[in-house]
Structures are given as C-alpha cells and as structure tokens.
Amino acid sequence: MSVYPNSLGMFFFLLSACYCLPVFSDDVSPGPAAPYSTPYYYTPSQSSISSGTAPTPSAPTDNVPPPTSGFPEQEKPTIKDEETSNFSFTNSPQRCIRPGDIVKFNGENLSQLSHYKFAIRIHNDEVALTPLHITENQLIVQVPEHPKLESEQSYKILLINKANLTRHSSTELTINVCLLNSGNEAEINHEIGEILVLTDQLEAAAIKQELNKMGLQLLESDVLKALGKTILTLKTTENNLHSQIIALRKKFPNANIDVNNHYQQSATKPRIYAPRMILWPPSCNKISYDSIAIGIIDGTPDLTHPALLNENITIKSFLKESHQADMEHGTAVATILVGNQPDMGATGLLPHVNMFAAATLRQEKDTLLATTEGIVKALNWLMINNVRLVNISLSGSKNNSVFKKAFAIAIQKRIIIFSAAGNGGGTAPKSYPAALPGVIAITAVDAAKHIYRQANQGAYIDFAAPGVDIWIANKHNQGKYSSGTSYASPHALAIAAFYLRKNPAISPNLLYGAMKENSNDLGSAGHDPIFGWGLVRAPETVCE
Hints:
This protein is of the alpha+beta class. The chain has helices at 6-20, 201-214, 241-251, 274-277, 328-338, 372-384, 401-412, 485-502, 508-518; strands at 40-42, 88-89, 102-108, 117-122, 125-134, 138-142, 153-160, 165-168, 174-177, 190-199, 217-224, 229-235, 256-265, 293-298, 313-317, 324-325, 340-341, 346-347, 354-359, 362-364, 367-371, 389-392, 394-395, 416-420, 440-445, 461-466, 470-473, 479-482.
C-alpha cells in the first residue's frame, strides 16, 4: 500500500528531494576558479601607460570581474579580442636586459604590429616600451629607465591595440631585467659602483652628512662655479648601485642623481672635399678668428704633432691618474678646426682661433670612452673660460639626469653646443648629448651628399656636414682618411664661429636661424630625420 496518495505524495517527495540533494551546476567544485586559458584582459586608457602613474582599472564587461590586487598575472580576467592576426615570434632574448637597452625580437609577419603599442607590467603600472623599428621579421624596442624595474626579474611584454585591449603574445614574450653586473664587462656602460650627485652647495653638505649612514663613500666633491652647482662622486658596490640611487633620490628629491655613464667617440675608419662642400672659407679669405674662443670636449690633442704646432690650444685633463688618455681622436678633431700642415692636407677651418681642449676621452681596452663626471666638469671649465662655442664629438644612449641638468644650465646661459649625432645606424636610439634640447645635432654626409650609412637618424637631427673620408691627422705625425659624425660636427661649429666673430653677442636662436637659412636642403623638403635642415654652408660675405 502506498504511503502517499498518487499525486500529492509525489509532490511532497520531490519537494523533500530539493532540500536534501545538492544543487547541480557547471561549477562542481566550490574551490577557487580555474585559471583563464586565454590571457586577454582590459587595460587602462593610453594616458595611464607611463613611467610612474598607477593605472585605473576599466569597468568590467560581459560579467567578467575586474582584476584584484592579489590576482596572479597569468590569471587576469579576460575578454575576447575580435581581431585576427597571424604574426608569430621565434625568440625571447635570453641575455640580461638593463634599463635603456635595445631589445630585438625575431618572428614572422611582425609588420602587423605597426598599429600596436608595447608595454611591460611593473606592479600595478603598465610602462610603455619605445618601438624603434618594425619589419616583417624583426621588432626592435627600447626598455625604459623606470625606477621600479627590479633586478633579476622577468617581465612579460604586453601588446596594446587601438581599442586598448592588451594581450600577451601567443609565445609569451618576456624580457629578463638585470641591473647588476652580469660579468660581461663589455656590457657595462658606467663607472663601476659610482654615483653622481649634482645639486647646490647647501644640499651637498646635507648629503655628505648622510653618507656614512647609507654606506656610501665620498670620492670627490667639486664646486662648479659656472654651472652654479656642486658635483659629488660617490662610491658603493655594484650590487647596491641602483638601490642606493633610488634611496638617494627619495631622500633628496631636489638633487640630480644618476650613475656615472660612459660616452664614446663617434668615429669609424675609411680628397679633401669638405671645405669646398660647405663653401669654406667664406669669400673673404683673410678673416682671422683669434678674437674668439672655441672649446672641444674630447680626447687630448697632441701638441707635438706638426699640424698643431704653434696653435693657441689650452688643454685641461678631466681624467683620473690611473686612466690612459686618448690622443688620436682629440688630435683629429683639433686638426679639423686649427690644423696648420698644408703639405699634408691638414689645413684647419679656423686658423689661430683660441681653442680650449677639455680632455675627457680615455682608452679602455679596445674602446674609447668618457664619463658623465668628466664631461660635466669639462663643460663647467669651458664656461669659466668664457667659451660660447663647444664641440663634443662623443655620444651615448643614456639620457643621464646629471648630464641633462648640466647641459640645460649651460644652454640657458647661451652656450652654443654642437654634438655628433652618433654612428649607430638608422634604427639606433637617440644619441646623447646630441638629442638633448638646445644641443645642435650634426649628422654626416659624403662628397656626393649621401648620408653616412652608419649615421643615427631621428627628429633630433639639426644639420648635416661632411663626415665621410675626412683627411685627419693621426698619432704618427701623418694623416689618414676617417669617417663618422665626429668629424662632421666640427665643420658645423666652424660655420657658427663665422657668425660669432661677426657678432659676439649673437643669440643662439639667431645663429641657428642664420645657419638654417644658408643650409642646402637635402632629402625631403624642409626638416627631415635624416639630414635635418640640410647641409651647413658658409654665407656669401663681403670682404672687410
């Protein structure tokens, strides 16, 4: 006999089952959600991809929860990207990447990435990488110098499309950041363990009082009167270098604090066509330049070389006693400007000019390099000697904050600085000091006005000058052909010296405008990233 009536009994049976049995759903396990299989997710707007601003999370869409602070990066909430693409990568660089380094990725169909932006995630920030060059088979980007980059960390590269959707590439591209000495001395681009501080005297005194507490050693302290600053050279271990810089910047935010970076000569090896090409000398060939002073920040000119005998050259070294001074590069640049050996083809552009040569370039194994410290002190010395025209045929990829501040002060005080654009090639990053605001960047062309194949390119290029197969003096009391933007820059300075002689009080802007007016436009009409405003030329003049 049935316990329940047919219909009513069945109703109560089903009702009791609903209370006693578990609720069935797609999520069988009450544990944590499974990881997302496709790593797509929303990103902040473009304006928050910066070097220091924390991003604001986007609103959730399609019931996908926003990221939380404890959410592992590989488990970010996702949204499907409707774009279709077939690009692929074949490598992630295995070497240690330092801030400011250039990174190359190989792959297929990479030109499709031309409309993407690139970034890495640092904690809650998404920091933009600088795209330098994209072809079908190669992507080249520059890693930023971001204070939150951590040593021995691996960062995934994010691809950001126009809709601000971000995704990792299908091959999980990464870069391995290393701020420490990797053991490969060729990759070190600064003085080991050295920190530079550029500040005023009062704060310099306060910093000195903190050095022992911070485990730092004071190597040198110099008052730079012309710049109105004091420069401190501090010493720490290489392992602690970047953490100490971060700590100093936090404690003394008004000071400019950075590593003691290296800068190298901008020259490579192979008619004396250059003077004729820039219409030099001006139509009046009897002009004397003994009333003005010029400065070079370079190697040490060899005053015993026949091409430099009896010239008005004052040399001051900014090298340490343990450093081996370079004499070849400095001699070459000095000869272009004041050489007096016509039988050897070494006839300078500015005969009998007063030259102040600040020796900063040293020999280091198979390379030549100068330091930030040496260049800043050299610039201060030239200013003390009332030098307004400065040539610096050195270049480096680091926009050092101490370096940048010193040059900004000099330019504000109407110092006119010419710098070699660099010899890294068309896809190389900006070269410094050439790319600093107010510095006049000079690239090199050959006798046919073709760009030097190794010259840097970019919006910072101001003018072109002869720099390929230039006849220069060498250390064996003879001469040779050599090429590089190093040798183009002095030719441009000579044009400026003509205007400065005519008008010693000329403003940098007026001088720049005169050089622009008389230049020979090359390449695209107007300013372009290859030739700048074109080939510098002397103006047509009337003899006095």
